[in-house]
Design a protein that fits this description.
Blueprint lengths: L14 H9 L3 E3 L4 H9 L3 E5 L16 E4 L7 H13 L6
Parallel strand pairs: 1-2, 2-3
Helix pairs in contact: 1-2
């Protein structure tokens, strides 16, 4: 069976609703922003983010369960991502 992907954009939406939707994503591609950091720490899914978030100390990112760094060119280790995604799926229910 082919996986189904759903992409969502939240333009002109309530900020709290947007963060909650981001935190429920099975895969969150996080930027170097406060919104992304909050969603990434709340997330139980796979979080792809730049290794050296410039705005936040390592301690601020310590709560991320299944985080994986992406390179500056946007690339990442697909095998490792698949293993983390599987671990995220096994770790329990998402916030859905």
């Amino acid at each position: 069976k082919t996986p189904q992907w759903e992409l969502r954009m939240h333009l002109d939406a309530d900020p709290v609703v947007s963060v909650l939707h981001m935190s429920k994503a099975h895969v969150l591609i996080a930027s170097d922003s406060s919104f992304s950091l909050i969603a990434a720490v709340l997330s139980r899914g796979l979080v792809l983010a730049r290794d050296g978030w410039r705005r936040f100390a390592n301690e601020a990112r310590a709560g991320m369960l299944h985080a994986m760094p992406i390179r500056d060119d946007g690339g990442f280790d697909c095998g490792r991502a698949a293993k983390l995604w599987a671990a995220a799926a096994r770790s329990g229910p998402t916030l859905e």
